[in-house]
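Ticket 4471: requesting a sanity check on a complex prediction with 2-phosphoglycolic acid. Repro inputs:
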Amino acid sequence: MRKKIIAGNWKMNKTIEEAVELANSIKLDLADCKEVDVVLCPPFTALKSVSDVVSETLIAVGSQNMSSEDEGAYTGEISHTMLKELFVRYVILGHSERRQYYKENDFWVNKKVIKALEKNLRPILCVGETLEEREAGDTEKVVEVQVREGLKDVSADAYTELVVAYEPVWAIGTGKTASAEQAQEVHAFIRGIIKDMVGEEAANAVRIQYGGSMKPANAAELLSQPDIDGGLIGGAALDATSFVSIVKAAL
Ligand code: PGA
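Returned structure tokens:
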């Protein structure tokens, strides 16, 4: 049985003060939540403060990106060592906003996934098609390339640590959600690719989150699908009440 995982991707929102307030509100309800893995991913500037808030709870902290390199002349980047110093456990990698606006590609995303695993950080690898690609009937083709390239050279035993997030780009921040059937279909497809890549045991163990306008109103239905193991939440994660009710829908 895969444990569900709900992660809040706060994106470029929240000052330190606001982040601490949000984390504190979430902590009131979820500090001891054992049944679901809860992860908060604030901007880099608030990682330390949010880590402090959740330090004695079961809530984990994640970052929204990580460099594939160890250290050196990489202006604007952040390394695994720096993140671990702030008690970060998860790293969101290859989010569609990074692919779209900052030209991250599968090659670099794969390097980051490998580095994160090597350094005992848990990658949340994001994949998903654009509206244009879906309408052209290319969803499976696009997602398959992102999964195969993004997880290239990852050993079968690492799949218990990593998380894949299926996030159709057309559903992110748009209020449009994939229907539970549409999402389940792609999740099952992703699990099938992983089975083909590394075998059934790893495919059954890997957790696949859905992301894209998940909110309290649609969370329970999405999370009841057999291959949907959690959610990567953007907009609704900025509000403690909404985020907590999504986590409760996963119980
Ligand atoms: P959204 O974002 O929930 O606001 O659609 C999800 C994400 O981008 O991870």
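Notes from triage: DSSP finds eleven helices and eight strands in the chain. Leaving this open until the requester confirms.
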